[in-house]
Amino acid sequence: MKIALAQWRIEAPASFAEFAARISAEAESAAGQGARIVVLPEYLALELAATLDAATRADFAATLAALQPIHADWLRLFSALAVKHGIHLLAGTFLLAQANGRYRNRAYLFAPDGAHVFQDKLTLTGFENAARVIEPGDALKVFDTPHGRIGIAICYDSEFPLYARAQREAGTRLLLVPSCTDTEAGATRVRIGCMARALENRIYVAQSVTAGQAPDNPALDTNTGRAALYVASDRGLPEDGVVAAAQPGATWLIAEVDLAALEATAGNAQVAVPADWLQQSRPSVARATVEVL
Asked: Rounded to the nearest 5 degrees, what angle is found at the Cα of 134, between the Cα atoms of 132 and 138?
């Protein structure tokens, strides 16, 4: 099964229609290359801040409020594209207003029949906490699809082992990670998190990223990262754990997710971290003892 992971260059669309035209063309490109699952990056909706005036863009809370009227159009756009191309489409994330006046960083996953499910970001970054208008989600989910059970970890959530472990125990073998990082350090943290989750759980982890410079969009002014598909490094799988990584300047990484090979090689694995996971919970090692040297 082919998956398309975006390395999405942030641009400055003048309208939702212009944004939709680009999204539509790129979705057609990904589907045309055989992708059955297409993954766009975190904070994708913030690209539409370019349609707002400078004063609104300079105020993050005002930006989020101003983008809410396009939410219905957002859902219609991605639902239609999933139907048109017969794909599962993760539409990046949209910061959606809640009844309490705060926003949740929400990733929608659309099915080929146009229906959708969502996963909210569960742990906020320093930037998101400092904004004082974003709240974490309160539910961890796994989605049953014709491609197997799929989980979503939005950017920073990929750095926390227990989320992915719970998703793995619920049947996830493919974890989608829409991400957005502005520094090389941030990109490295998410990359290492993705690789660690793949190793610990013997699953595929698919990361999409934002890319490029957008100086007139304070929320997405600098973007650093590389789209990639990771898996456990073991017999019958890539020795470095990297199935494929996008080339600089590319919009899409098209890579093969071979769940059958993942299962077929499990019995001959050099290590069995998923099976041995509970070893670290033995009462005798649950807490470290301090010895004086």
From this structure: 130
